[in-house]
Sequence to fold (420 residues):
Amino acid sequence: MVSRSRLRLASLLLVVALTPAAAAETLGWEACVREAASNNADLMTARANFAAAGERVAAARSGFLPQVSAGAARSESEGSSPMISGDPAYSASVTATQNLFAGFLDQARVEQAEASRERAAAAYDAARATLSQDLKSAYAGLYYAQEYLALTARIVERLEENLRLVELRFEGGRENKGSYLLTLASLEQGRYDQLQARQALETARAQLARALGRRDAGELQVQGPVPLSAPPAQPDFPLLVEQAPDFRTVIADEAAATAEVRIARSGFYPSVDLSGRLAREGGDWFPDDDLRTLTASVTVPIFNGGRDYYGTRAASASLEAAAAGKDSVRRQLLVRLRQAHAGYVESVLKLRVDEAFVEAANTRAQIARSKYNNGLMSFEDWDRIENELILRNKGRLLSQRDRVLAEAAWEQVQGKGVIP
Fold:
């Protein structure tokens, strides 16, 4: 028979092994949201891409504005021709060129840049939603790991009490050795679960640190659960599809493909330009002789090896593919939204059910312990109720975590979340 002193020594060693070596850093939910929004590398990349796309729109609009340049030159000529004086010549000029018509090329380039900006905006929203889901999952995971570690400690304490109770009855001849050994094995299982909970805690810390943009998790802890909200009763799924980043992306791709077709077709149109040049020329610096030139030109394309023709056909094929992809993404998003909403609603009800079972299991365990102490219940019935209490408490913790994950998944499909 294993003595009580050996059991106490094993418990002491386990507690020492599970004691943190350094002071823990405790963060609340709002602090985690702020830190993730500021430090997450994926979010910063998406934000920078969106800013760059906005600048490219401004660059594309430059095609509607005149192009102005200035220059100065000095030249010398030598030779036997009587037309060559050998004296240096100087010139200074300002030239302005305005395109009047380029086959709708400039407008198409602006539309293409705006489509790219919209795609970057959708990608930015998607990155925020993904980070929100990752943060909620990691935070809820660490909170669950902390609560589960505390639960396993309470379970071990309860199992130690059960062992003392069964041991006394066994020593008094009112319980058999099999019951004692089973209770002892249950205690060892509880200690093993406690060790696993500690290992899971370290993993959960690393996941939260990654979401926060930290290199090292340290002794990170969280305080309080993730704020929750009730699921919508009847969501407008078609409207949610239109607002989702994935669908906005394919809409932007279709707009960009449409603009690409217009760009390719612009090569079939003539180009009309107007330019003016104001210059001064002479043999001294600064030259005194004025020169003014105004030029209007029309350029008509005739043949460039089929580049415009094949380019237009390729762009049209890309547009057709983008249009087909839009319908496919719409259907996929509709399915994902319905699945995510169903899982969200089910997780809320599952948590409610598990909480009711925990309340019932606690009451039954109190009654069963009293009956077993008074010899009114068999060990088998009492042990079954005790095990059910343990399982119900573990199940409630798991449902609390899954409730957060389901809400985060529902938000992520919509492109929403807590990241500002």
